[in-house]
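Training component of the fellowship. As part of building independent skills, the fellow (R.M.) carried out the full modelling exercise for a liganded target. The chosen ligand was S-adenosylmethionine. The inputs are recorded below so that the supervisory panel can assess the work.
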Amino acid sequence: MFASVAPRYDVLNRVLSLRQDVRWRRLLAAALRHAPAGEVLDLACGTGDVALAIGDRTVVGADFCLDMMALARPKAARLGRRLPLAGADALALPFRDGVFAAVTVAFGVRNFADLDAGLDEIRRVLAPSGVLAVLEFQRPTLPGMAAMMRVWNRLVIGPVGRLLSHDGGAYSYLPASVETFPDARELGARLSTRGLATVERRELSGGIAALTVARKVEAT
Ligand SMILES: C[S@@+](CC[C@H](N)C(=O)[O-])C[C@H]1O[C@@H](n2cnc3c(N)ncnc32)[C@H](O)[C@@H]1O
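Fellow's submitted model of the complex:
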């Protein structure tokens, strides 16, 4: 699915979110202030927009969709940035234990075939006190926003996504997967059961999206 939408992925993000996605990714990058010094893994990095929004640290991008990552390379080159990339499945990461000060995941965890297995892998590669920062869509929390999103999904995201991405399923999958995925509060609780304690939770744009930041805690 991601390979088929890759060529139009960035433009669809800008159009369908009315450019809110750029601001959301900046906030995700800023959440790294909670992390100790060291390297960052941007997991499910896609076309590299989060990795490239992180200005002041070495970032490694990883994703299992090589067609998405192929688009990150020329973007990094245009910005004169070095961006090491790894083809990798989040459920079985090819990195040693404890090597990253932080892991960022934007709009990725919702797609993991096994969320808990992905979270366990993230925790494994985090250094002691390392930080996970997750940006994800959720069912909107602001009254009235849920109804607006249903209209936006039906009249804009579905038709425009189908037209520009040439993948009928991908942009119906998006709202459907948001409906069934845990919201930020539930995600925070899930993270805490896996040794990741929430340090910041912030709802964005009326709760359409949320930023969850959690620190790795040692098992007692
Ligand atoms: C909606 S895109 C988000 C891309 C990017 N993080 C962004 O902010 O635009 C979701 C990405 O998650 C990746 N993905 C989903 N499941 C994955 C997994 N198990 N391992 C690695 N990447 C995964 C997909 O290939 C896709 O590139």
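The panel noted the following from the submitted structure. The first strand starts at residue 40 and ends at 43. The pocket of S-adenosylmethionine is lined by residues 2, 44-46, 49-50, 63-65, 68, 89-91, 106-108, 111-112 (CB under 6 Å).
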